[in-house]
Design goal:
single chain, 374 residues, alpha/beta, abc type-2 transporter like fold, 15 helices, 67% helix
Length: 374
């Protein structure tokens, strides 16, 4: 790098830092916005069903019926309510005061004492599919466990032909927060990274300072570098804040390498900053640039990155579109590093994809930025 170019870059970067300190909105986007969004989403978005309202109908009370229904009373997933008959429970289900109910008929204890397998009724409100699946799976598992325990007490072979022993390899706590928070980091950093630079060049155009820069000897490459360097450091600072909140506040385990996480975050931040620069260069208006950044970066990252919705279950055309969403690759890396460790067969392809997208967007921003007033 020539001495003249080095001096011009130093001066431009100092100018940008001075602008950042005079306008604290950039600091708020870099540090405050990720923290606020992570707290809101981390506490507000959850796929865990807790305290599901479940009705219990026991037509003929007995020790066997009480033994079976006690499993739901002692479960953190359910808030059981007793009903005298199925009609009352069905009315509560129609009124959406419960999500489903279990129906033990009057011959429950008699059939059990006679050595026959009693039938139980499970009626579930399918509007909330997550709660419906939870009730269905929990009742099936509880029923199998209870039959096995009753057979053991009676000293007879179990009526359940298969003994299921679940083994969870990753996310042993089975907490959706451990799965969602790493994805949230990617979605939030997509928004903040794009917003940080989507406004800077547009701000120069609106304030008329871009014309002043164009009459100097600085090149567009130097201008773009001076925009990327300060906001890259701000974005990485915001990333550090997000990871700290995830690990120490939400208790999400981090099994992978911090060095690999830093490398992946750096490539992803460069890709996001490149998208922001490209938007800012084309829009030349802060309001328009901000709206475009939200629509083209945040929404695709939220919907098409695999953060909440499984990419494999999407239609084939939508799966193809996800390959141009940078957050898709960063989400895969984050979930691997946080929950499984440094799994290189997962890390390498996604790192290369992020590198390619960073080069593409930064190159596109360079091509779109011309030292001309038209």
């Amino acid at each position: 790098m020539r001495a003249g170019m080095r001096m011009r870059l130093r001066g431009l970067i100092r100018k940008e830092w001075a602008q950042i300190w005079r306008d604290p909105s950039s600091l708020a986007i870099a540090f405050l916005l990720p923290a606020v969004l992570l707290l809101l989403f981390g506490y507000g978005v959850s796929l865990d069903a807790r305290h599901v309202a479940l009705g219990i109908v026991v037509e003929q009370p007995s020790a066997a019926a009480a033994s079976f229904t006690a499993q739901f009373s002692n479960s953190p997933y359910f808030a059981p309510r007793d009903f005298s008959n199925a009609a009352a429970a069905q009315k509560a289900l129609s009124g959406e005061t419960i999500d489903g109910f279990i129906w033990l008929r009057g011959d429950f204890a008699r059939r059990l004492a006679a050595g026959k397998s009693p039938d139980i009724g499970v009626i579930v409100d399918g509007i909330n599919a997550n709660n419906a699946r939870l009730i269905e799976n929990y009742v099936q598992e509880s029923w199998s466990d209870w039959l096995t325990a009753q057979a053991a007490l009676a000293g007879v072979p179990s009526r359940v032909p298969i003994n299921v022993e679940p083994r969870i390899w990753f996310n042993q706590a089975v907490s959706s927060r451990n799965y969602l928070v790493p994805g949230l980091i990617a979605v939030i950093m997509t928004l903040t990274g794009a917003l940080l630079t989507a406004l800077v060049i547009a701000r120069e155009w609106e304030r008329g300072t871009m014309e002043a820069l164009m009459v100097t000897r600085v090149s567009m490459v130097e201008i773009l570098i001076s925009k990327v360097v300060p906001y890259f450091l701000l974005g990485m600072g915001g990333m550090a804040v997000s990871v700290t909140i995830a690990v120490f506040l939400f208790g999400v385990p981090l099994y992978g390498s911090l060095l690999v996480l830093t490398l992946a975050a750096s490539l992803f931040m460069l890709a996001s900053l490149g998208m922001g620069l490209l938007i800012s260069t084309i829009a030349k208006n802060q309001f328009v640039a901000g709206q475009i950044a939200i629509i083209t970066t945040f929404l695709p990252a939220f919907i098409l990155s695999g953060f909440i919705f499984d990419i494999g279950s999407m239609p084939a055309p939508i799966r193809l579109i996800t390959h141009i969403v940078a957050a898709r690759y960063f989400v895969a890396i984050l979930q691997s590093l946080f929950l499984a460790g440094t799994v290189w067969p997962v890390i390498w392809p996604n790192l290369l994809a992020l590198l390619g997208m960073a080069l593409f967007f930064l190159g596109a921003a360079r091509l779109a930025a011309r030292k001309r007033l038209d």
